[in-house]
Amino acid sequence: MISEQKNPDKTMPWLGIGAVLAAIGASACCVGPLLLLTLGFGGAWMSTLTSMEAIRPLFFALTLLFIWLGFIKLYLSKSECKEGDVCASSKVQRNQRLIFWIGSVCLLSLLSFPWYAPYFL
Hints:
Elements: H1 14-38, H2 56-76, H3 90-111, H4 113-116
């Protein structure tokens, strides 16, 4: 008989997805116009692309919430992995934490973009 390997715990895949989507939403008011500017689009109409700035604090809070929930899941909650499962491996846990921190740095850099964007212009 072939033994079945269990996949890592996937009970909350929405944590990472939610954090990324919230960070993109929070930075859409500033990254969008800069991206269009670097692609060669210009004009006075670009000043009208700030309509998402009104809901930016909501996306900001959601991003921080999802990052915090991911941190709790990785560091503070008890693992539901049994001995011999793939998710019980220290290498898998280390890789999950590394990806979490790389993703968190990227998300926080997107969130802080409006504060360092003037240095690019």
